[in-house]
Amino acid sequence: MKSFLVSILILASNVIFACGFYPTGEDIRFSFFNPSIFNLYSYSDFYYSTYSFSVNEKPASETDRINSNENHWLQYCKNKVSIEAVREVLYGFNLKDITEKSNNEMLRHLYKTKNAEAIDYLKFAKKCEIYNEFDDNSWEHNVVKLRPERTKLINEAVLLSNKVSDKELRYRYTFLAIRSSYYNKDFATIIKLYDDVFKSPQKTSFLKYWSLYFRMFAEKDKALVNYYAAQIFVNAPDKRFMASFSFDTKVPLESVLRHARNNQEKANIYLLAGIKRTDQSLYYLKQVYKYNPKSDGLSFLLLREINKIEDWVFTPYYSLFSPSLTSYDESEKSSTATILKRVERDRMYAGEVLSFINTINFKKRDNPLLWKMSKAYLYFVTKDNKNCLNEISKLEQNFSKKDSLHSNQMEIIKAMALTANQQTGKAFVLDAVKPILLKNENDKKFVFAIGRELEYKGNFTDAALLYSKLTEVSNSRYDNEAFWKTSKNKKHYYADYFDDYFDYINMVYTPEQVEDIIENTKQNEKKSDEFSLWKYSLIKKEIPHLYDLIGTKYIRINKLYKALSYFDLDSDEDKRQSVIRTYDCLWEKESCGDGYSVKDPFFALAYTPEFVSQKNYLSINKYVFTKRLISYLERAKDPKEKNKDYYNFLIANCYYNMTFYGSLKVMRRYGFTNDFQDYPVIDNDEFYECNLAKKYYGFAFKNAKTQKFKALCLRMMGKCELNKLRHKYPEYDYETNETIENYDTFLWNKNKYYQDLKSNYADDYAMLSSGCENYAAYFQARR
Fold first, then answer.
1. How many CA atoms lie within 13 A of 45 on its CB side?
2. C-alpha of 460 from chain center
3. What is the pLDDT of residues 72-95, one digit of tens each?
4. What is the number of alpha carbons within 13 Å of residue 563 lying toward its C-beta?
5. Which one, out of 242, 343, 615, 682, has a CA that is 20 to 30 A from the CA of 45?
């Protein structure tokens, strides 16, 4: 929190701009198992995320980015040319650029070795490029002309494929003919060319599967389409992304498997079917292992399952949001109890995956480190922290200094397991965890998770201190942010989440818990070790604001002397006074003349004429205001006081002004809205129902000496009761989607104070219910 004001404005903005942002998807997903460190980049478009599936724009390395076509040309040129030279020819050159005079390394090699067939092929391929696209916009292309031009090229490609001596070039010409036929929508030619050249099981060239991709679109049998998609997916990484969309999960798997000619093809079908699922895929994982245990897709399917499990378990466990990508029935209520019950169910499923992993011989796996790390992680997911730490200890012995990615991954899991492994009531930030936190301070969700584990173990102080670090990280907003809820939320609303430590402790912590934060900070303020400097860097600047927060919390529970003692802790009058000065224009527009003064909250209600006319506005702060309220309460309680009606009425005005409807909301709230929000704050009902105000208007009524003043007190009690009824019985209930008909009549019939006023003070009822302009006259009629 850069400043007190910023924290309040953020809370307000969360409501003001609620329609513009609410955390969902990747904003809320908790993931500590990084898929990008396991050398499975060819599957990166299928990493588990709420964007499934999306093209990965950040390749792990240049080597990973080399596709089958590029790699073929590198090998064709005996690896004597650079990948940049190959890409320049494939993607940058046009037909006229392919000449003997070119400085391109690849072309120089082909001309030097007098490979005329390869050069002729490249020229022909460039000639085909402009025709191989769909575009039915007659303003840009003459579609009638394109079709015969493509047909001519198709025939030429077939002829050339039969002439060339190089088998791979023959495949290339056939592929060009098939591709051109696709854009010509000539599916019969696609089927014929594919069957003549590529159908044989002995053909394994990547061009076979590139051609099968177009053959797939010529097929009407949906089961066969799925079969083709699965084989393309495994054998042509460059076509995986698009092939996956052709795999229809609604087609029965049994009908697809009938087309498989061997176990490997069955494994391919199970692999793509498993990847397409967003729910549990252990069955598919086992089937891939059964039919092709050497498949690199097996490791990826495990990785994807781990990422799913951590979303199902840790997103709700740490944030209380439902999983970011959930397959749960939408009709299920997302109460905290329901969400956490699901978490336990998903932990059990994680145990099933762990049991499967324990049957695997890691030495025979293509990615043994992934399997070992998954095993350690799943022990943590299943709350078996001891075995998790044992597995991590074994792994740490094998990590080299250069292997920082895997070692840091394990350190993150180790830090969480160490923290979670502590006893409730005795948990703290362990020395072994401190350097891991410092190293990963920019990983907000990790820092939050450690804080949350401590909070669940009863250490609210260290939890808050770690939450305070989330605001200091300089990442752009919503980039790796931690968003979370509290179990104290009564129901869903737009601002029912947190992303700032101050908002959270403001809403959820007790005054005593905030006092502990201050005390802990003071006890450690002289420590100079790196972790302590990091841990307390923000909070030590926030002490005055935390004093104000504690005072505000005591106001909320009506412990005024306690509140006064904290408002008085800042001896600097200007700073103390600014607590209210900063916000006075927010809660009383008419009092913003000099930006420092307010109407007397004991004699004026918001948007209501004063009970006592004021010539000057007051300069006020929380300390002064609370002290004055206490003094009026003491006078009202004094048996010798003759003006109990007067002081109780002023006290009631004061309490009314501290509610949603008054001019001093800042006494109870940091940031507020123009509609009802069931915040998890202890005084939420008081804030919207004005119960204390009604109580003291009632005391004023009991001590009133005149009928008119009694009528005014009754009118104000009715006003408070109306606020309570509006809060208790909203006109439209968003939970049940029910509307109360004749709402005003419904409220009046339930308001016993208005009925009493009308029955026993008929003349005054007409005057007082017509508007608030008569309040002052009735107040003056007190004697």
1. 18
2. 23
3. 999 999 999 999 999 999 999 999
4. 23
5. 343
